[in-house]
TrEMBL record:
This is Allantoin racemase. Belongs to the HyuE racemase family. Gene3D superfamilies: 3.40.50.12500. It comes from Rosenbergiella nectarea. It comes from the Bacteria. One of its GO terms (molecular function) is amino-acid racemase activity.
Length: 250
């Protein structure tokens, strides 16, 4: 079977978080898959709201363009808000998955109801918007916030990890669910341990996206270029955005 090269894009500038997600992705991926883990040099150190997502989107598109130029076969946007996902799908020849969408699909395959554990309360609202968009709102029992910022997952104190564990235990015993989704890419390394401890599926979107993307590539399926996800039209864009628009339609 053919080998595949997958680009894992961390949309924030945290190299530590990029490495955490890369380790998880490489653990999950088969021996036929090479993982390129990247993050932008400029942008926001963490993504915790709509403004952060808007700032990060240009960096995502630049990484898509660079990955396509390197011959990458597919891409993962490794932020639970799935920022810039549809724009990235327009730009890329290969398939592009967001970790929130991937996690929700996987959870729906192994449980009829699930809960999400995320970081700040404001991201609860964003997660609910995504549940509506992807058609999983009725299957989600609750979205819980540990009320700590994303970068607390990388501060070495262990407090964020402990709170994630506590909220997952609470969801298991009180939400009447069959699975739990970890609602931040920085939680990627917690899923296996929590699944074993809780004796139920605790799903990380990074691992879910790697597995689904590899399956799409094995099937020879990519993003449809018939319709609204066709390559962007070249309209003479100027400035930093122009570097992104080097597509076959140009």
């Amino acid at each position: 079977m053919r080998r595949h090269r997958i680009q894992l894009i961390n949309p924030n500038t945290s190299q530590a978080m990029t490495e955490t997600m890369a380790h998880t992705a490489r653990t999950i991926a088969s021996s036929r898959v090479e993982i390129d883990a990247v993050c932008p040099k400029e942008g926001v150190p963490s993504i915790e709201g709509h403004f952060d997502e808007a700032v990060a989107t240009l960096g995502i598109l630049q990484q898509i363009r660079e990955g396509e130029d390197r011959g990458v076969n597919g891409h993962i946007i490794a932020c639970f808000g799935d920022p810039g996902l549809l724009a990235a799908r327009e730009l890329a020849k290969g398939p592009v998955l967001g970790i929130a969408e991937a996690a929700m699909h996987v959870a729906s395959m192994v449980a009829t109801r699930f809960s999400i554990v995320t970081t700040l309360p404001r991201t609860v609202i964003i997660a609910r918007h995504l549940l509506h968009r992807y058609g999983f709102y009725e299957q989600c029992a609750a979205v819980h916030a540990i009320d700590l910022p994303v970068l607390s997952l990388e501060d070495g104190s262990g407090l964020a990890q402990q709170k994630v564990r506590e909220y997952c235990l609470n969801a298991k015993h009180n939400d009447n669910v069959g699975a739990i989704i970890l609602g931040c890419g920085g939680m990627a390394d917690l899923a296996a341990e929590l699944s074993e401890e809780l004796q139920m599926p605790v799903i990380d979107g990074v691992g879910a996206a790697v597995t689904l993307l590899e399956s799409l590539l094995n099937l020879g399926i990519t993003t449809s270029k018939w319709g609204d996800l066709d390559f962007p039209r070249n309209k003479g864009i100027t400035g930093p955005y122009a570097a992104c628009l080097n597509t076959p339609s140009s």
